[in-house]
């Protein structure tokens, strides 16, 4: 019976479709690979209007969702002098990443590279390509990607969490009702102190009662540099001469960022040299120590440490801020998470890496936060060695492909009620989502090298905060939702003030 049906179906297809001109055309159209020229997308004028007149640079993440509605899962747009293809469906993002090759290229990050060339600096992991990138990635991977190697940072990170808790306490005492205003600024300092402790294994004083001026300047420089990144990339080079402000400011910020990192590296190396001179044993577990012992040129050490310092600030601050913001608005989730932490701790006060590994709801909360607010809302790839096919289009080699993670992770087709904070969706293994629908740390060879350190840092800090405080929305606040905005990375648009009540 089945065989009969199969024969009659196939013969119907073969006898009718190819012989009718309409059917043949349909088949040909379905199998023909389309060109970039055929891809939909806004005109240059419309894109410039969206970006500059409608404050689109800070709304780039929202433009992803508008793009999907208007053009479907793939569209092209010119970002200043750069033509980029947007890909906004998990299966298509997977197609891109599976063809990325041995040493993937993230994006041109043209202005970051231009600055380094101009000043004679080296490239770090964020900006390096090819064999140069591969060599450092392999070296650092040993200390940053292996679970056991990362677990060993928990004592160092816990010392930073101690300082964070003390700082939150000071802040809540200085304000009425235990309010901690603008929590993101507290977490910038925490992020910087955290990554510094991993890189230098010594305090740099970010969480002290008086924040060193140079630290404030460093954070300010990062903020401004991120604002100027998109602007400098969107402006063609000849415009830099006509309107020099964005490029000049961008360079000044980078100068400060490099100078800050170099100052700390040199200081640490000097301390070590003095120890050696006194005949004391030098035993370092920190990343700068490993890097300096690999024989890499100092220029490469400086650029890598600088880029890692940078990578550890906004990412941690944003994730911590949104986590507490959402937990304060969902007291039932906060209570369950606290219960989980207390059950694992069984009366002990300071969780370690082994403890947080036994907290599934904690991991689900952070996953859900990064789904709603992916710090890298749009990532990118350039496939330099070959043309590739994605979603039925032929993308010529060297096309900049923008991976629209914000759009996929807020798409109801992959996450029901996508705008709501529902950490439990990650605990129900039967309601699987597409593995590329929410990939906040990226996927594959070029994915975030700091992922394990970042997760450990966030889990340790959240666990301790919840053990010590009930976190509530600002009692004087309007209750209006805080929106995310793009500042190269995705950050809260306005200040988040939260009430910390001692438990
Ligand atoms: C919640 C925190 C963080 C998030 C969400 C995050 C996310 C990302 C993403 C999406 C990428 C690009 C991956 C790709 O292109 O496939 C990346 C790259 C990178 N991240 Fe993170 N990151 C975080 C924290 C950190 C921290 C703390 C560090 C520092 C230790 C760090 C260092 C880096 C570096 C060096 C790269 C470039 C890796 C390479 O190109 O080989 N990140 N991160």
UniProtKB/TrEMBL annotation:
<dbReference type="InterPro" id="IPR050479">
    <property type="entry name" value="CYP11_CYP27_families"/>
</dbReference>
<dbReference type="GO" id="GO:0042359">
    <property type="term" value="P:vitamin D metabolic process"/>
</dbReference>
<keyword id="KW-0349">Heme</keyword>
<dbReference type="GO" id="GO:0034650">
    <property type="term" value="P:cortisol metabolic process"/>
</dbReference>
<comment type="similarity">
    <text>Belongs to the cytochrome P450 family.</text>
</comment>
<dbReference type="InterPro" id="IPR036396">
    <property type="entry name" value="Cyt_P450_sf"/>
</dbReference>
<feature type="binding site" description="axial binding residue">
    <location>
        <position position="448"/>
    </location>
    <ligand>
        <name>heme</name>
    </ligand>
</feature>
<keyword id="KW-0732">Signal</keyword>
<dbReference type="GO" id="GO:0008203">
    <property type="term" value="P:cholesterol metabolic process"/>
</dbReference>
<keyword id="KW-0560">Oxidoreductase</keyword>
<protein>
    <recommendedName>
        <fullName>25-hydroxyvitamin D-1 alpha hydroxylase, mitochondrial</fullName>
    </recommendedName>
</protein>
<dbReference type="GO" id="GO:0071375">
    <property type="term" value="P:cellular response to peptide hormone stimulus"/>
</dbReference>
<dbReference type="GO" id="GO:0016705">
    <property type="term" value="F:oxidoreductase activity, acting on paired donors, with incorporation or reduction of molecular oxygen"/>
</dbReference>
<feature type="signal peptide">
    <location>
        <begin position="1"/>
        <end position="15"/>
    </location>
</feature>
<dbReference type="GO" id="GO:0006700">
    <property type="term" value="P:C21-steroid hormone biosynthetic process"/>
</dbReference>
<dbReference type="InterPro" id="IPR002401">
    <property type="entry name" value="Cyt_P450_E_grp-I"/>
</dbReference>
<dbReference type="Pfam" id="PF00067">
    <property type="entry name" value="p450"/>
</dbReference>
<dbReference type="GO" id="GO:0020037">
    <property type="term" value="F:heme binding"/>
</dbReference>
<dbReference type="InterPro" id="IPR017972">
    <property type="entry name" value="Cyt_P450_CS"/>
</dbReference>
<keyword id="KW-0479">Metal-binding</keyword>
<dbReference type="InterPro" id="IPR001128">
    <property type="entry name" value="Cyt_P450"/>
</dbReference>
<keyword id="KW-0503">Monooxygenase</keyword>
<keyword id="KW-0408">Iron</keyword>
<dbReference type="GO" id="GO:0005506">
    <property type="term" value="F:iron ion binding"/>
</dbReference>
<dbReference type="GO" id="GO:0005743">
    <property type="term" value="C:mitochondrial inner membrane"/>
</dbReference>
<dbReference type="GO" id="GO:0006704">
    <property type="term" value="P:glucocorticoid biosynthetic process"/>
</dbReference>
<dbReference type="GO" id="GO:0004497">
    <property type="term" value="F:monooxygenase activity"/>
</dbReference>
């Amino acid at each position: 019976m089945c065989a009969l049906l199969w024969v009659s179906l196939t013969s119907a297809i073969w006898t009718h479709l190819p012989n009718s001109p309409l059917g043949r055309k349909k088949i040909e159209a379905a199998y023909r690979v389309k060109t970039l020229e055929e891809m939909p997308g806004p005109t240059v004028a419309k894109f410039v209007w969206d970006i500059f007149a409608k404050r689109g640079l800070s709304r780039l993440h929202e433009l992803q969702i508008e793009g999907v509605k208007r053009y479907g899962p793939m569209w092209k747009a010119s970002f200043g002098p750069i033509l980029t293809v947007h890909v906004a469906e998990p299966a298509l993002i997977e197609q891109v990443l599976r063809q990325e090759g041995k040493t993937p290229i993230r994006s041109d990050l043209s202005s970051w590279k231009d600055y380094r060339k101009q000043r004679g600096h080296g490239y770090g992991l964020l900006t390096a390509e090819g064999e140069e990138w591969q060599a450092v990635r392999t070296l650092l991977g040993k200390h940053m990607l292996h679970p056991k190697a990362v677990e060993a940072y928990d004592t160092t990170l816990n010392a930073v969490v101690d300082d964070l808790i003390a700082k939150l306490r000071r802040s809540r005492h200085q304000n009425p009702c235990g309010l901690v205003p603008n929590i993101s600024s507290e977490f910038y300092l925490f992020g910087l102190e955290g990554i510094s402790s991993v890189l230098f294994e010594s305090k740099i004083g970010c969480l002290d009662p008086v924040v060193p001026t140079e630290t404030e300047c460093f954070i300010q420089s990062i903020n401004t540099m991120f604002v100027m990144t998109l602007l400098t990339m969107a402006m063609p080079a000849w415009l830099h001469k006509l309107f020099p402000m964005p490029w000049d400011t961008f360079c000044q910020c980078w100068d400060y960022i490099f100078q800050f990192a170099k100052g700390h590296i040199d200081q640490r190396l000097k301390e070590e040299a003095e120890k050696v001179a006194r005949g004391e044993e030098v035993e370092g577990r920190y990343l700068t120590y490993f890097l300096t012992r690999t024989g890499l040129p100092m220029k490469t050490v400086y650029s890598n440490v600088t880029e890692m310092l940078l990578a550890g600030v906004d990412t941690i601050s944003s994730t911590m801020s949104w986590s507490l913001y959402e937990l304060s608005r969902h007291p039932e989730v906060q209570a369950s998470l606290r219960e989980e932490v207390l059950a694992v701790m069984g009366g002990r006060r300071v969780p370690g890496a082994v403890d947080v590994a036994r907290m599934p709801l904690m991991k689900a909360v952070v996953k859900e936060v990064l789904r709603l607010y992916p710090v890298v809302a749009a990532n990118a790839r350039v496939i330099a060695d070959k043309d590739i096919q994605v979603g039925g289009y032929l993308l010529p080699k060297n096309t900049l492909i923008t991976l629209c993670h914000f759009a996929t992770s807020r798409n109801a087709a992959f996450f029901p009620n996508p705008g709501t904070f529902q950490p439990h969706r990650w605990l129900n293994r039967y309601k699987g989502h597409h593995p590329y629908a929410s990939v906040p740390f990226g996927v594959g060879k070029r994915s975030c090298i700091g992922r394990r350190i970042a997760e450990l840092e966030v889990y340790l800090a959240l666990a301790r905060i919840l053990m010590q405080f009930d976190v509530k929305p600002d009692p004087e606040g309007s209750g209006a939702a805080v929106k995310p905005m793009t500042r190269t990375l995705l950050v809260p648009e306005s200040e988040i003030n939260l009430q910390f009540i001692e438990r």
